[in-house]
C-alpha cells in the first residue's frame, strides 16, 4: 500500500488538534469567529479523509466515511444555508475522538 496517505492522516490529526484548541478558547455556539475556525478545520479534515485509500478505510467500518464526505460537501457548498453551530458542536463531540483514534491506529500499523 502506498505510504502517501500518511500525510493526509497526519493532516487530519493536526485539524483535530486545532479544533480542540479552538474549543478551549470558548463556545463555538456563542462565538462566530471560533465557529468559523472550527468549520474550516472540519472542512480540512473531511477533505483529507477523501484522500485515504478505500481499502484502508474499509478496515475501520465504525467510522462514517461516507457521511464525513457528505458533511464536507455541506461545509464547502453550504447546501443548507446557514450551518447550525449546535449541529457542528455535536459532530465534534460525537465523532472527533473516534476519527483521531482511527488515524493513530492507521499510522501505528505501518
The count of strands amounts to: 0
The coarse silhouette is globular
Q: Give unreliable regions as ranges.
A: none
Biggest beta sheet attributes: none
How many H/I helices? 5
Listing every helix as H and every strand as E from the N terminus to the C terminus, the arrangement reads HHHHH
Q: Could you say how many structural domains there are in total?
A: 1
Distance from N terminus to C terminus (CA atoms, Å) equals 10 Å
Q: Approximately what portion of the residues adopt beta-strand conformation? A: under 5%
> Helix/strand-derived class?
mainly alpha
- Return the average pLDDT rounded to an integer: 90
Description:
- With 110 residues, the chain is mainly alpha-helical.
- The protein has one domain.
- The chain is 74% helix and 0% strand.
- It has 5 helices and no strands.
- It has helices spanning 5-25, 32-49, 54-57, 65-77, 85-109.
- The model has no long low-confidence stretch (mean pLDDT 90).
